[in-house]
Amino acid sequence: MNDDQLFQRLSREREVLTISQLNARARSLLEEVFPQIWVEGELSNLARPSSGHLYFTLKDAKAQVRCALFRQHAQRVRMDLRDGLQVRARGRVSLYEGRGDYQLILDSLEPAGDGALRQAFEALKAQLQAEGLFAAERKRPLPSHPRRIGVITSPSGAAIRDIISVFGRRAPYIELVIVPTAVQGREAAPQIVRAIERAERAGFDALIVARGGGSLEDLWPFNEEIVARALAACQTPTVSAVGHETDFSISDFVADARAPTPSAAAELLSPDGQAMLRQFQLYQRQLQQRLHERLARDHLRLDSLRRRLRHPGERLAQQAQRLDDLELRLRRAHKQFLAHQQQRLERLGARLQLQHPGRQLGLLSQQLEHLRQRLPRAMQQSLQQRRQRFSSLAQTLHLVSPLATLGRGYSILLDDQGQAIRSAAQTRAGQHLKARLHDGQLDLRVEAPTPHTLSLLD
Q1: pLDDT in tens, 234-258
Q2: Order of strands across the sheet with 175-180?
Q3: For the segment 307-331, what is each residue's pLDDT rounded down to a tens digit?
């Protein structure tokens, strides 16, 4: 149901409402039609009760509206609120039923106009600083004697006139090339980026990015992120000269150097001719002084060399004397060498004589004769020892020999196989036996074997 249909229904039905019902329906209608809006205006009548809520009025040149910012949302506001501050607010349209006051219930509050730009400036500055784009170690040094400089600015602005004037006065030999671009407005930032890229390809010794003073909105293209990143990517040394001395832009922080004004940027890159002349004169005086000192040192060295220089004849005489001395030393060394070799030869001859084969044969002959004389005696002694041992063994053998037993009257019975008979059971009747005696043997025949064991007790 749209707003017209709602109001037509209320007027046809002639419904009588209480004030509370009217305010309640009005509140519902406002909150339904305006669920969330943004408004901008000047803050006034700011009240801060102990509850932590904020109450104030937003107004412009023709109207005003009451606003409420409750504590849970007021705690998130980081700016210093005061009467007269231009702010931008977000909230819903409502109605305070108790008094029938039309009001805005806000949930967000931020600075408007210059305040919003300042807030965006600080946010981008913090972001780029965190990325290291402001770091001193990444900044390139400016050339001390540039020959060709590109100036990125508006060709019709006051900044280029100031720069040309300073270079004409201080260093007219430096070539200036204007890289034209817009420096204000919505299209200025992309144009500045393209100008930086063109200047980078042109091969300048340095670049000046400049414009004159103005409001924060006027200088805002130099606070754009795309311009800052283009300056950071540029390999040519850059000088940022945007606004007046008190103005600071993001370009100032990213560029390799900042100049407070365009004229100061020109002075920064243009050597002072008078100062260069004074420096040249100083170098000239220093060079002359060094030349005088060098000549004085060379004269002293020449005198010293002249005193040390001798006639060639004297030098030859010294060399002849040295040659004679070397000849005498050579002769002495030769004689000493020969004597040493003679002594060594004699020592080797004596050692060779000691090792002569005839002498060795004589010694061996004497040793052989001595052994020949010892051999018969040794053989006789060995034979005598063996005879004595043989006799001893023979006596020992005789004591245990069966023949000795036979000599005492015993005999040995042998069967026809030559085996000794030890028992009568080994014989049979009619068996032929042999009896071996101490002297000879007998042939016997067994009549009848009688097994019987003799006892010593018998």
Answers
A1: 999 999 999 877 778 999 999 999 9
A2: 175-180, 148-153, 206-211, 238-242, 257-258
A3: 777 667 767 777 888 888 888 899 9
Q: Do you know the residue count of the chain?
A: 458
pTM: 0.44
| Residue pointed to by tokens 């001893």 | 392
Residue whose structure tokens are 């085996």? 419
Domains of the chain: 3-112 (2.40.50.140), 140-271 (3.40.50.2300), 406-445 (no CATH)
The phi and psi torsions of 355 (rounded to 5 degrees) equal -95, 15
